[in-house]
Protein: Orotidine 5'-phosphate decarboxylase
Amino acid sequence: MSNPIYLALDLPRLDAAIALAQKVKGHVGGLKLGLEFFCAHGHHGVHEVAKVGLPIFLDLKLHDIPNTVAGAMQSIHVLEPSIVTIHAGGGRAMMEDAKAAAGENCKVVAVTVLTSLDDGDMAAMGVGGSAYDQALRLADLAQEAGLDGIVCSGHEVGAIHKRWKKGFFVVPGLRPADATLGDQKRAVTPRAARDAGASVLVIGRPISRADDPVAAARAIEATL
Ligand SMILES: O=C(O)c1cc(=O)[nH]c(=O)n1[C@@H]1O[C@H](COP(=O)(O)O)[C@@H](O)[C@H]1O
Structure:
């Protein structure tokens, strides 16, 4: 089985991101480039990181009207990402158009409820029910829209997997048992997420901010 860990390269410097990717490449299955990286380094940065030789997950969390998101999807074909994120909150038509505009061999997955949000945040935003309820609702909508899968926390992935047998499930907000949460509110361990049905485990700071990132990646890999 291939390594499900995608390392989130949330680093401001391109040389540091590439150096980290080179160091841990034997212990992760792919590299995730998100907003911090893309806003700083754009297409050039993605091309440079792709030279490391691992699949690229472009986490742009697109969320706009359908026409604009479809245009953005077309603009990233050239980067040949293996996974791209959009927000399920953009609605069904936006998700359908994003999938139709995606490049070949690119999985389009929708973020349901960010792992940095909890039930209190749902109430503050006027969303009825818990974060869990909302994640399941948006996962159903993403499935109806024909997407490949969703992004959710390890708390919901098991229940969503039961309703969407062939879905592709990206789970971030992962923390080894002794790690600090930071801004993550719905965190589980990498092993728990894997056991619940995650296809991809997104891990950033527990590896990138470790004193020894290779040892940290190895230790997490060993728990799976
Ligand atoms: O789409 C994501 O990858 C994502 C969705 C989500 O709900 N929560 C979440 O943390 N992420 C991303 O996953 C990574 C988590 O990083 P760490 O908390 O440092 O492991 C970051 O790059 C986030 O942008």
